[in-house]
Write a structure and sequence with these properties.
Elements lengths: L1 H4 L22 H4 L3 H8 L12 H18 L11 H11 L16 E9 L2 E10 L1 H6 L2
Antiparallel strand pairs: 1-2
Helix pairs in contact: 4-5
Amino acid sequence: AEIIYGKTAEIYQDFRECDFGEFENKNYEELKNNKYYKDWLESGGELPFPGGESRFVFCERCCGCFEKIIKSNTVESIAFIVHGGTIMAILERYSLEKKSFYDWKINNGDFLIFDVIKEKRIFSLQRVEKVDSAVFKTGF
């Protein structure tokens, strides 16, 4: 935030990345023979990570935090600098364009611009626009 906007950021613990438990910092080669990893894959990513979070708990945490921030702010624009999973959780729940969690995956360093539509104390997201990190590096 400081590099991009010249300001320090407020840290929201509920935007932290998913707790991958025993799978943390391990790659496919290290996990491919692990029974729990195979079970997790077969569940479509729905099972909780052994010793970690389920996708449901992770998404509830991220979306609850996002909703609290959006509902309590009156500023015209807000920037969120978050992990990809956090973005995926928020867009799966609130975007008017309906896609599944994994369909919202973006590349590291890329970012999204979207409009928040507030109506009757609820909100949704529209005009989700992916901006490639190369654009950011060269300026707008």
